[in-house]
Design a protein that fits this description.
Layout: H1 3-15, H2 20-35, H3 39-49, H4 56-72, H5 77-87, H6 103-109, H7 111-114, E1 120-123, H8 127-146, H9 155-162, E2 165-166, E3 171-172, E4 183-185, E5 190-191, E6 196-197, E7 201-203, E8 206-209, E9 212-214, E10 219-220, E11 225-226, E12 231-232, E13 237-238, H10 248-251, E14 257-259, E15 264-266, H11 285-324, H12 326-355, E16 362-365, H13 369-393, H14 398-406, E17 409-410, E18 415-416, E19 427-429, E20 434-435, E21 440-442, E22 444-447, E23 450-453, E24 456-458, E25 463-464, E26 469-471, E27 475-476, E28 481-482, E29 487-488, E30 493-494, E31 499-501, E32 506-507
Parallel strand pairs: 2-4, 3-5, 4-9, 5-10, 6-11, 9-12, 10-13, 13-14, 17-19, 18-20, 19-24, 20-25, 21-26, 24-27, 25-28, 26-29, 27-30, 28-31
Antiparallel strand pairs: 1-8, 7-8, 14-15, 16-23, 22-23, 31-32
Length: 538
């Protein structure tokens, strides 16, 4: 590094106060001095880092590094011995609390692996990072086991058992939060599906974790991101496929709404229907008990379905073995499994029509029987039908057929590599549409504790990119393209033949049209819409 760059880093250290930024600057100096073989300066930097480490493993690692530098670099054996001895004086990491209400929560919280997570910066090639990685994998695996409890009254105790500070009447869906000890969600906070809450930031060989807070009655939309250290103000909103603002004063602004990446401030947002506090943020005890009892079905039916499928397959194979022998039973095993899955998919479709019937545009409060019934059907689809059968059908003609059974109006020769649907009857898809991997046709939003849903329409020959989101009340006209990881906001229309990208979507150069197969002439364009390969300006 040049002398000027070194002066900038040192100035950064002197200007920042004690905390996360100081740790960043000292970590940078630590790496620079080691690479430049400036051992005396490295010793001074390591000594400044020691009091900033809130985790015992971090202190221990720095003292070992000091001992190595003293012994092999500056030839100070007495200092090396003293630093090595002081490693033994470090207090052990926090022991697991035996009073946790859930034994599984104690295990997944990782107390035995990493201790309680403290704010700070840790080396990627260190013991704490490895222990933290193990716990992250356990938390990720737990989603497949305890997934049905998300978006129910039972998820808040689960997060509290993991170490998070969760207020009253918090609604948590399938969010990703690995540094759970540093997460706080105030009263009335709402987190939608697949949001990321305070995931550690890794840069330059260092992992940084900091407290992440969602203010009172704040909201994080589907696939929204709260970076580590973000503190959202009361009543604030981070939209779908959006990130919280980097500036603390912007993030903490009460009532502010942010959309996109980088985030754009929304001066106003759509007003919600007027429902009382008893149906949104402060339900009475009787309503909470009723919801808790109903949600027992949502929690137990998906794993019960898995058990029934497993029992049927095992029983069928054993019966076939008794009659035809082991070889024939194993050969017929795929057929038995396929039959069980076909029965399962038929049962889920029947449950959809029996429990909620045909979806129409609606706006209903969270604490209502209609929303609970909708969430029950969603759990059967998301945690039972999708993982057991539908994920394997993505990208095949079989998935559109099943979507039609659930109520989607879907055209011919549609490529669907996603199961991102819920209010199926509100979706209309034209012919020759391409729905790429994990894109979401989102016909609802959960704003102000009001579930609002409406229709969306995708015209003929349209393309929706991988992991993009199309919100309700939007239209993609014939031949329109939405690039990967993009957001089409509600109420918007993409004109025919145009290409769009970004979050929120903006006009972009058209994606290249696929080459026509040999010996095939392109179909003539119909009046009023572009033919294949033809693109117009936005």
């Amino acid at each position: 590094m040049t002398p000027r760059g070194l002066r900038q880093v040192r100035a950064r250290y002197e200007n920042f106060g004690r905390g996360q930024h100081q740790l960043h600057a000292l970590g940078a100096l630590r790496q620079i001095y080691r690479e430049a073989s400036r051992w005396e300066d490295l010793v001074g930097t390591l000594r400044k880092l020691i009091p900033l480490q809130l985790e015992a493993s971090g202190v221990k690692e720095i003292r070992f590094e000091l001992a190595e530098v003293f012994l092999s670099k500056v030839n100070q054996r007495e200092e090396a011995i003293e630093s090595a001895k002081r490693v033994l004086d470090v207090e052990p990491a926090a022991a697991p609390r035996p009073d946790r209400p859930l034994e599984l929560g104690i295990f997944l919280d990782g107390r035995w692996w990493r201790g309680r997570v403290r704010p700070g910066t840790y080396p990627v090639h260190g013991a704490f990072y490895v222990r933290n990685w193990i716990v992250d994998q356990l938390l990720a695996a737990s989603l497949g086991i305890v997934g049905p409890i998300y978006a129910t009254l039972y998820v808040a105790p689960w997060y509290r058992a993991l170490g998070a500070r969760i207020g009253r009447f918090v609604e948590l869906s399938t969010a990703i939060a690995t540094a759970v000890d540093l997460l706080e969600i105030a009263d009335g906070g709402t987190v939608a599906d697949e949001a990321s809450l305070g995931t550690p930031h890794v840069e330059g060989g260092w992992m940084t974790v900091a407290p992440t807070r969602l203010g009172r009655r704040a909201f994080v939309g589907n696939s929204g991101v709260l970076p580590t250290g973000a503190c959202m103000g009361e009543g604030s909103l981070v939209g779908v496929l959006s990130i919280a603002p980097a500036r603390a004063e912007d993030a903490g602004r009460p009532g502010a709404s942010w959309m996109g990446s980088p985030p754009i401030f929304l001066p106003r947002r759509q007003e919600s229907a007027a429902f009382g506090e008893a149906r949104t943020y402060r339900p009475p005890r009787a309503l909470r008990l009723a919801r808790g009892a109903f949600e027992l079905l949502r929690v137990t039916l998906p794993p019960a379905g898995l058990i029934l499928v497993s029992a049927f397959v095992v029983t069928a194979v054993l019966a076939l073995q008794a009659r035809l022998g082991l070889g024939a039973a194993l050969a017929l095993l795929p057929l038995a499994y396929a039959a069980a899955l076909a029965a399962l998919l038929a049962a889920v479709a029947l449950a959809k029509w029996a429990v909620v019937g045909r979806y129409r545009a609606f706006a209903r409060p969270l604490w209502s029987l209609f929303v609970w019934r909708l969430e029950l059907v969603n759990a059967l689809y998301e945690f039972l039908a999708a993982p057991l059968a539908l994920h394997a059908l993505r990208g095949t003609p079989l998935l559109p057929w099943y979507l039609r059974l659930l109520g989607v109006r879907i055209g011919r020769r549609v490529y669907a590599n996603t199961t991102g649907f819920l209010e199926w009857d509100l979706v209309r898809i034209g012919d020759r549409v391409a729905l790429n991997e994990h894109c979401v046709l989102q016909t609802h939003l959960f704003e102000d504790r009001i579930l609002k849903a409406s229709r969306l329409q995708i015209g003929d020959d349209c393309t929706v990119g991988a992991r993009s989101v199309v919100l309700y009340d939007s239209t993609m006209e014939a031949g329109a393209q939405l690039d990967a990881l993009s957001l089409l906001m509600k109420g918007e229309t993409l004109p025919a033949g145009t290409a769009w990208a970004g979050s929120p979507a903006a006009c972009a150069p058209a994606m290249p049209a696929p080459a026509e197969p040999p010996r095939r002439r392109p179909a003539p364009a119909r009046p009023g819409r572009p033919g294949p390969g033809r693109r117009e300006d936005c």
